[in-house]
């Protein structure tokens, strides 16, 4: 799992050494979308924040101020946005289809970071997937894979089977 997410984030960061807070930086868009998922249920848990920090530290090898700057840029961009368009358009512009599918997996990993997922988190991931052109089938497959990685019961399934 970690290798897959690592490759994904390295691929989107390999487009040059842009500053972490550049407005059209795909990394900022990814962090902003992660925050949209974390905020969906009305509570950003410490486990969600820690998971995001852990992923960014390990994958980007950023720590301290650089990590804080990236997270702040994504969080600020997300709080200023009225919809997902700014971020999803950046994602569509910078990521190919496989990378966009892996992004949905990352969003599911964030949704499960607190031990469960809510209907609101489901809705946000569904909307983001639709906007970036990820099929319903791929979205469900990524959710199932994230559920296995999280190794928790999926009680809020809402009709989608966790069985493959």
UniProtKB/TrEMBL annotation:
A Pfam family annotated for this UniProt entry: TerB
InterPro entries: DjlA_N, TerB-like
Residue ranges occupied by any Co-chaperone DjlA N-terminal domain in the UniProt entry: 28-140
The protein's name: Co-chaperone DjlA N-terminal domain-containing protein
UniProt cross-references to Gene3D superfamilies, sorted A to Z: TerB-like
Lineage: Bacteria, Pseudomonadati, Pseudomonadota, Alphaproteobacteria, Hyphomicrobiales
